[in-house]
Design goal:
By secondary structure, the protein is α/β, with parallel strands linked by helices. It contains ten helices and eight strands. The strands form two sheets. A six-stranded parallel beta sheet has the order 5-4-1-6-7-8, sandwiched between helices. A two-stranded antiparallel sheet has the order 2-3. Its cofactor is Mg(2+).
Length: 259
């Protein structure tokens, strides 16, 4: 796809002091498959070791049932919230409780989640140029935050795996707050916590709906990069962003900031 880069006048590294990054599809290229027989057979065995006996299909069905149950609980507490997320740790725990296994440690839940993620992940790599961009921002004394629709049980391990955690001044993951992008509430959490100047804050992400439209709603800037796993875009002109990189070449973000 043709690269499209557009910018407002005087947009460069000096314009932004605060950078909010999406993670998956922006910094990390990841492909997962949560429908594989190997995944559910392995998780079934791990539950069985603790006395929670399932068939593969029952375990998979109840997993999705408890996700929906958690979503409904959050909706009742926050009826005006449009975009919610659940903590899968609660779901994994409920799968034990459903089989009358009530004394499961948090460490076992974390280990189970790690196994679930590692087996369901078919590929995970960094986009070329990620370290260079983050080092460049640090060298220029910029504040860097992660704002990701993700699960802490998965994401914190993957940040450490690639050594990304050291770059962020703070990390905001949707499962921890039960709200996700593009909800304005999620964007406002780091903005309020650090009293960020919205005129000097930019969101960098690969989803024109959750990242760019969400950023626009709270009046912060946007840098959009289109990747293979991005939501399909029919008309790039409709994307609200200071910069649009339709080619998916991550290094072009740094080039844009250096203009």
């Amino acid at each position: 796809m043709k690269t499209i880069m557009t910018a407002k006048k005087n947009t460069n590294i000096k314009k932004f002091d605060n950078y909010l990054f999406d993670l998956y599809g922006t910094l990390i290229d990841i492909r997962t498959n949560e429908d594989s027989d190997k995944l559910w057979n392995t998780i079934r065995i791990l539950y069985g070791y603790e006395g929670a006996i399932y068939t593969n299909e029952e375990l998979k069905d109840m997993y999705h049932f408890f996700i929906m149950e958690e979503m409904n609980i959050i909706r009742k507490k926050n009826p005006n919230r449009k975009h919610i997320d659940v903590d899968l740790g609660k779901v994994f725990k409920k799968l034990f409780e459903y089989k009358k296994i009530n004394k499961i440690s948090e460490d076992k839940i974390k280990n189970l989640a790690t196994t679930f993620r590692s087996i369901s992940t078919e590929n995970i790599t960094l986009y070329d140029g990620v370290y260079e961009l983050l080092d460049f921002l640090k060298e220029n004394k910029k504040k860097i935050f992660l704002l990701s629709n993700a699960q802490s049980l998965f994401t914190l391990n993957e940040l450490k795996m690639f050594g990304l955690d050291k770059y962020f001044d703070d990390i905001f993951i949707s499962s921890d707050y039960e709200v996700s992008k593009p909800d304005e509430e999620f964007f406002m959490i780091p903005i309020k916590k650090y009293n960020l100047d919205t005129n000097k804050t930019v969101m960098i992400g690969n989803d024109y709906l959750s990242d760019m439209q969400g950023a626009s709603k709270v009046k912060i800037h946007g840098i959009y990069i289109h990747q293979e796993i991005s939501t399909p875009v029919d008309n790039p002109d409709k994307i609200i962003a200071d910069c649009k990189i339709m080619s998916g070449v991550f290094k072009n973000i740094k080039l844009f900031l250096e203009e």
